[in-house]
Amino acid sequence: MASGLVGLPIAITYAGWTVAGIGMGIAFPTIPRTVMGTTADGAEARQLSSSLLMDTLGVAMGASLGGASVALAGNAGAGLRTGLAGAFLLGLVCAVLVLPISRRLPHLPSGQPHEPAEVRSPGQPSGDAT
């Protein structure tokens, strides 16, 4: 749809979304894998549920902000092209903003088990003598 608005051939759209789909396929399992790899036995569901909630809310917020961009552009008389450009710009800005945060993810070598950190219940002492 967006390539039709800017006059690009449909083949470029397919190529672009193929590359984007491969990138999403590679990047998407990174956070759940990290969560599962750093969680103590028995606490996987609790930790993964918050990760999946974050994923669902992120998709909902992205779709709503993109829709708002299209609606605002339409109401201002700027047209669909401007609204779609605003939606993609919002996505780009969000990606740039979270890039520094992504460096905080622990490195988990593939194929090697990770020793999970001890998970304590709230109010449970840490076991430190300090």
Please, could you describe this protein's structure?
The protein has 130 residues and is mostly helical. It folds into two domains: 1-40; 53-107, no CATH class. Helix content is 66%, strand content 0%. It has five helices and no strands. The chain has helices spanning 2-6, 10-27, 30-37, 44-75, 80-102. Helix 3 runs antiparallel to helix 4 (44-75) and helix 4 (44-75) packs antiparallel against helix 5 (80-102). The longest helix is centred in the middle third of the chain and has 32 residues, at 44-75. The termini are far apart.
Low-confidence residue ranges? none
Question: Termini, distance in Å?
Answer: 61 Å
Shape: elongated
Q: What's the tally of helices?
A: 5
Radius of gyration, in Å, reads 21 Å
The overall pLDDT average reads 79
Number of domains: 2
Task: Give the SSE map.
Layout (H helix, E strand, L loop, with lengths): L1 H5 L3 H18 L2 H8 L6 H32 L4 H23 L28
Helix pairs in contact: 3-4, 4-5
Structural features:
single chain, 130 residues, 2 domains, 66% helix, 0% strand
Summarize this, please?
This protein is an all-alpha fold. Helix content is 66%, strand content 0%.
